[in-house]
Design brief:
The complex is a heterodimer of chains A (about 110) and B (about 425). Chain A is α+β, with helices and mostly antiparallel strands and about 110 residues long. Chain A is built from 2 helices and 7 strands. By secondary structure, chain B is α/β, with parallel strands linked by helices. Among the domains of chain B are: about 220 residues, Rossmann fold, CATH 3.40.50.620; about 60 residues, no CATH class. Chain B has 17 helices and 12 strands. The chains are: A alpha+beta (about 110), B alpha/beta (about 425).
Chain lengths: ~110, ~425
């Protein structure tokens, strides 16, 4: 099992929850290593959110995640396209994917 | 997962699912639908007339940035003949507004529009930072909202524009409907969905993005690479509104049409005739529109300037009590001063005895006369010459009107918080959406 390299991007204020860094390259470990119990073979957005919460989100996780999804009002883009077109949490993350999180909840 | 084709049949892959219609569209078709819907909202609502000058209320945030961009685009595309300019309010919040104003300045350059920035400091003599230092972080949003509302009106008057366009989006309006229900504010509930607000004698405000979803505004800004500012205000957010907002977002996730449905409910509801509504009139001090004899901004400002920052917060009965206490205290001070004066001065034939005066003064002021002595008995309020000049300019003469204010407050039982929501008569309009 190899690792999975992807890029994470944050905008619209979501970056404020991630050390104000708007772009970061991350390498996900093999899914089996991180979730030994998982029946799945591949990373989906659902597991990615757990990994982000564990590894990147330092404070106030409730501003980013709610239940096992993102907090309503945070948009998720997979390679610049709306995740609602790609199965949302069940989307299987591919090598070199760019996953972007944009908050609609900040300012006006 | 396979790519989804654009619903229009243009042959491209869809990039987003529209919350309003559920359609999957490519970028270009989304831009077209997004802009055309706003164009329809503008024409159907008759928001502008050819030749109008329009001030776009610009905060540097996503909504006003997209509004400025779309209005410029539509003005060119459909020959509205509008003279567009940007109007920003500098509340004086360090680390928030100073940064966002930089974004507005970029909008000014990008869209080639004139920009006018008005500050609370110049208008009222106080920055929000200074107000928060007085009032704390609990009620500061009341000050900010009330002052901003009036500041926009003043700015628009200075720019001599026909109307002010604000960036309120569909989610904002639905949230306001919900908030007014939750607060039992029937007067605002009735008028908050109006697309054009403002009564006679005021500069109307229009909301071209009234039927535009927040998600689409953010996606539009992202795909068009518009630069906007997205830091939350550094002062504590309104917790009650926050809950309403979270509820709405949760509901929207399950059923996106709830936003339009709530707006529709707000537009079509009718209020029983026997429910009394506050009548709009002109503030006796600043001559701006108010639902009270003295408007909220003037009461708040008076509170700040008298060292009673809580004056305009909460029920008017409380404000009345505060002013009574303040007046009683002032009267006691005056009585004391008068007593001291009598003790130290002999008054003969209606004139003050000069010789006695010289005794108490240390030789410096040997021309103690009527005027000088009178001065010492007047209220000793901190005076800011800039404020006085502005107060005068705006007809806000601060000549001890506590007495009349007391009466006004008694007359008008409810305090009528003037928030920066919306005002005016409801003119329901159906939303327009492009479906394929």
């Amino acid at each position: 099992m190899t690792t999975l390299k992807i890029q994470l991007q944050f905008g619209g204020g979501a970056e404020l929850l991630f050390d104000k860094i708007k772009k970061r390259e991350v390498e996900l470990p093999s899914l089996k290593k991180y979730f030994p119990e998982s029946q799945k073979e591949k990373w989906t957005i659902k597991e990615l959110l757990v990994w982000m919460k564990d590894n990147l989100l330092m404070e106030r996780p409730e501003l980013f995640v709610q239940g096992d999804s993102v907090r309503p009002g945070i948009l998720v883009l997979i390679n610049d396209a709306d995740w609602e077109l790609y199965g949302e949490l069940s989307y299987e993350v591919q090598e070199n994917d760019v996953i972007m999180f944009i908050s609609t909840l900040h300012g006006g | 997962m396979p790519a989804v084709p654009c619903k229009t049949g243009c042959g491209k892959n869809a990039m987003l699912k529209r919350p309003k219609t559920g359609d999957a569209l490519c970028k270009e078709c989304f831009f077209w639908a997004f802009e055309t819907e706003i164009h329809f909202t503008i024409t159907k609502g008759e928001l502008f007339k050819p030749g109008d000058s329009v001030a776009v209320a610009a905060s540097g945030g996503k909504d006003s940035t997209v509004l400025a961009h779309v209005l410029k685009t539509l003005n060119n595309r459909y020959n509205y003949g509008l003279d567009l300019m940007l109007l920003s309010i500098d509340e004086g919040i360090t680390g928030y507004r100073d940064d966002s104003l930089e974004t507005v300045k970029r909008n000014r350059d990008d869209y080639e529009m004139n920009l006018k920035i008005l500050s609370y400091k110049d208008l009222y003599g106080w920055t929000m930072d200074e107000i928060v230092a007085q009032i704390g972080r609990k009620n500061n949003c009341t000050f900010c909202g009330v002052f901003r509302r009036q500041a926009l009106d003043r700015g628009a008057a200075m720019l001599n524009v026909k109307c002010i366009a604000t960036g309120h989006n569909a989610d904002d309006i639905a949230e306001t409907v919900l908030m007014n229900v939750l607060r039992g504010d029937i007067a605002r509930l009735k008028r908050c969905t109006a697309i054009t607000t403002g009564s006679e004698g005021t500069i109307p405000r229009v909301k071209p993005l009234k039927y535009t979803y927040e998600k689409e505004i953010v996606m539009y800004a992202h795909y068009k690479k518009l630069v906007y500012f997205s830091t939350e205000c550094v002062f504590a957010p309104n917790a009650y509104r926050g809950h309403a907002r979270a509820l709405l977002k949760d509901l929207e996730k399950i059923r996106p049409s709830c936003i339009m449905d709530i707006i529709y409910s707000g537009e079509t509801l009718s209020v029983k005739e026997e429910v009394s509504m506050p009548t709009l009139r002109v503030c006796s001090r600043c001559k701006f529109v108010s639902s009270q004899e003295v408007c909220k901004a003037c009461v708040l400002l008076e509170g700040l300037n008298k060292g009673l920052p809580k004056l305009g917060i909460g029920k008017s009965s409380k404000a009345k009590k505060m002013l009574e206490e303040y007046n009683a205290k002032q009267k006691a001070e005056i009585d004391k001063l008068n007593y001291e004066f009598k003790k130290n001065n002999c008054v003969s034939k209606g004139k003050i005895c000069k010789s006695k005066c010289n005794n108490v003064s240390n030789g410096k002021n040997d021309e103690c006369n009527d005027n000088n002595c009178k001065c010492s008995t007047e209220l000793n309020l901190p005076v800011n010459p800039k404020i006085n000049k502005l107060l005068e300019e705006y007809g806000l003469l601060d000549d001890n009107q506590e007495q009349s204010l007391n009466q006004d407050l008694t007359k008008n039982g409810n305090s009528g918080l003037e928030e920066n929501t919306c005002a005016g008569a409801c003119g329901g309009i159906d939303g327009f959406s492009i479906a394929f």
